[in-house]
Amino acid sequence: MQTFLVNLVTLEHANNTRDNVNITENVMASTITDLQTLLQNKDRQIYLNNEQYLKFINILRENIAVKNQENIRLQNILDNLTETITNHRIETVRKDGQFQDNNEQVRAKEIKDLIEQINNKHENQEIIRLQNRLENLTEVITNYRIEAERKDGKIEDLREQIKDKLKNQEIIQNRLDNLTEVIMNYRIEISLKDSQIQDYIEQLKAMDTQINTKDNEIKVLREQIKSTQSISEKLNLTNDELATYKYTEQCPNLATISYFQFKIRGINTFQARCNPSGWMVIQVRYNGSENFNRSWNEYKEGFGTLRAEFFFGLEKLHLMTAARTYELYISLKDNTGNTSYAHYSDFKIGSEEESYRLKSVGKYSGTAGPSLDYHVQSNFSTFDRDFTDGNGLIGCVSNNGGGWWYKDCGFSSLNGFYFKKTNPDIQNKYIIFWVGFRGIYSNTTLTESVMMIKPTTL
Fold this sequence. Notes:
Blueprint: H1 2-12, H2 18-43, H3 50-96, H4 101-235, H5 239-242, E1 258-262, E2 270-274, E3 280-285, H6 296-301, E4 303-304, E5 310-311, H7 314-323, E6 326-334, E7 339-349, E8 358-360, E9 364-366, H8 396-400, E10 412-413, E11 433-434, E12 446-455
Antiparallel strand pairs: 1-2, 2-3, 3-5, 3-12, 4-5, 6-7, 6-12, 7-8, 7-9, 10-11
Helix pairs in contact: 1-2, 2-3, 2-4, 3-4
């Protein structure tokens, strides 16, 4: 900058000779070179990012404005210098008495034109270079802006993906929390089950001890049985001897299960099974050894073995219940060992002409539920004499098996199919059931049933 000012001073004191013109051109060239050097120094301050480019452009524009002002100032200096030289020449001619106006004016014009050409040449080249530089920088900035917009789009897409990931993460976290809660509940339940299992183990140990005790008792009883076998043979009564016990319609109260001969008016002498409490047993099921899917006549007369599974017979039941009032007691047991009972105060069935209709059951009491009440006034049905179609439903006997007082199939059937795992033929059929104790669709099944009657005591 100092060199630039010195050159200006030199221009102001230049003489009106050809040598002075050459000096002026050299000074102008040096001045422009200094300006170029100054601009080049300014170029080195440009930054390489978007903000730095914008800052450089502002600086560049300011420099251009400064240069334009500098050019104007230089032009003014040249104009003043030209005017000064012209005045000096006039004054010199005036003083020396020489009139050389035409030549001086030509030379002054040449100097002025030369200076303008030098200034215009360097100025135009510099402006073009700066304009090209500006265009390049503008293009770079535009590209950066496009790239920034593209990056912004990618960033927005990433934000959406992050939002989706966060939502999925929240859903997964909720599921994880739910699963954690379920696992904790399972752990608590398992802990309770472990405690129950431990209790069961203790019970099993106690039961093992009881079983061992019972085994010892059985051994003792077997020895006693062997010792009393000969006595039993001597005390064995024949059918004729049993006929001497004339308990017409009622079992005696004895300490053990007994078998007696009975004589009822209208029917031949028959043998019956009595329990220790004086009840006459009319039906027993406990292992499925006896087929209960029998014909009408078989249910009428009765079938089976008194010491195993059997059915007493409908005709005998009709004659006995027609003669007097009988109570009915039903005992039930399922495959888990649970037991229950049903007691009815007035059990009565009709004659064969009346299809052994269930006329009455009386008042219910017990724990099994009144599942026989619904069947009152229903006819007895078997596979060869099915009365269920009269009730608007066909197929009860084929689906449930056995003979029973079916009414729309109903709420009970103790003579139906007996479930055995080894018998696949009844997998899709109903088995013996008593809805009040174990529903027809229950996971448990009835494994034992006993029906007993005895005269009502006044």
